[in-house]
């Protein structure tokens, strides 16, 4: 009875509140809000009355980078939000692009995502906003990755030259005296460790299709041919022999249980990295920073990692490949494009931020001022137990990287490749069949999207 | 009760009985109409704004198509034709149908058994057991799924630790061959308690003098349960079957939450709902995603209609 009484008093109040909320919502929608100053910034705004530029980015040291920028600028301020890492952010950005509202002014994108948004007119050409003034700071390859002809769609920040990270303790225990230089040696070592009852030698993870793509390119595959100037036409070739060989190679190791098939970046995977469950990790230069952030390389796993050049198919003609690396792009929804461009070109471009980035190994900087500095070249990397990893491994790898061509539907391509990797790991398909199925799926999709497949 | 003319909810609960034939009541009934609308208004606003309008918009979207290299064009029912020939959609549909056929009987069986048992016993233990069985439903689905994700974990989970004790390889319940059972467990755990409460409430509503009469006639507890209790709660059973059917065909949260740790087993087209979300939010195909959503809605409608047709004689709820 008492409850009923209370309810009868509460109900009208709740109702009234509900109505108030409704009418409030209606007003907001009706007035057609002008571009409001972003207020829910993760960082502190130093100069209150300067125009604010909303930035989405997920670099682990982003807080410091944003503070550096805001302290050095009085005419513009960065309001930073972490909208998720990788695909999580792309989904939000894609939705905002489709909705034609809700996008940030500046967005962090990996090189393989750029063309997919360029084709939707979601990004702004930065060349009228002074992009060419900073061109000299970057290698030709790095600049090519963010450009389409004369148009520049993003400011490059970091790259992801790939190498072979390995556990020195596991190698020592199973008598592997030198890291494998070729994939044949890699497979032989994997078999040796497995035969001795050791841990998986590596991992064929389905959730990093970009790695598999890079390894396909290393063998000589050219998955896509696409030029934004010729918007309708696309070349797709993922059923060539190189792709089949690479998929067969990894499927073979995986079905023999010489390598694991766990997804990367999960709690289980990181725990495995800490515990020496994987002897090697085929990864990019920025990986140690993310692993350190997740707790790898501290405590029991401290000083047990080292890095070697990425194994090759043909040791006589090595090929360097890239995984990830990001850039800042200005979105076409930015209300003040000049201010946004200033942020895109200036954020993470100052010495203090870059130094913090490479020292924590969260980025492999593409800025030549860092790449050519003695401090960077000769740095003894903690994570690799004092190895001069930049000089010996990553800088040569970056210099040899020739760039790649991406499709305008990278997200779809990755999802299809991921599905094939799951099947390969389960022994339900062969590399040959996976490549053919992938090719057919992509061609069908491209046609449904209105492309002409060359 | 014979239905009376004024359709508003208010008149049903009115203290003064309405006499439809009397001309004098007209004025009062008009005012009551107005009051009725006033009370319905908040609901109506929310209903129109958050249910009818989005549905209408999605229906509109589903009639167009947009390609990356082409613009938006009118497609008519092409998206629907494509949906029902799309292997991704059909595979997802087949999975949820298979899943429904196993999970629904399982949940209802668990719920029914628990409810019948709790109906028999009284006292503190019964109250405690009721709470414990109901508890999983009180945990948000996302949290429940995260928790099971931890329990299934091959590095941290108890399954792994117990297996290590016996020196056997722990099964990974989210692997391609096992995920059906892994999800079956999570869903049953989450929902059986809720259905149990519905059945239990229905059981409590039965007049106990019927049991006394049955006992006097020499019926055993088992006979009472199977011959009296279950037949008398068939409306409640029919209700939870419909709930479960609709919920399971729209399967989304559990696989979505467990997906990131399932080593790619939860594909972007794992269930129709996951497929629709992937299409819209990752591939930017809002038009086709809308068509997939409506197609799923159609299948759900069909499934429920078939179910109601099949059970029309047994459950009084829908007849």
From TrEMBL, chain A:
The keyword Signal applies. Transmembrane segments: none annotated. InterPro entries: Bact_solute-bd_prot1, SBP. It holds the Pfam family SBP_bac_1. Residues 1-26 form the signal peptide. The keyword RNA-binding does not apply. Keywords: Signal. This is Sugar ABC transporter substrate-binding protein. It comes from Paractinoplanes tereljensis.
Automatic annotation (TrEMBL), chain B:
It holds the Pfam family BPD_transp_1. Its main location: membrane. GO terms for biological process: transmembrane transport. It is a multi-pass membrane protein. It is found in: Cell membrane. PROSITE patterns: ABC_TM1. Residues 93-307 form the ABC transmembrane type-1 domain. One of its GO terms (cellular component) is plasma membrane. InterPro entries: MetI-like (IPR000515), MetI-like_sf (IPR035906), UgpAE/MalFG_permease (IPR050809). The chain crosses the membrane at residues 34-60, 93-118, 130-151, 179-203, 232-253, 288-310. The keyword rRNA processing does not apply. Keywords: Cell membrane, Membrane, Transmembrane, Transmembrane helix, Transport. Residues 1-23 are annotated as: Disordered. Gene3D superfamilies: MetI-like. This is ABC transporter permease. It comes from Paractinoplanes tereljensis. The lineage of its organism: Bacteria, Bacillati, Actinomycetota, Actinomycetes, Micromonosporales.
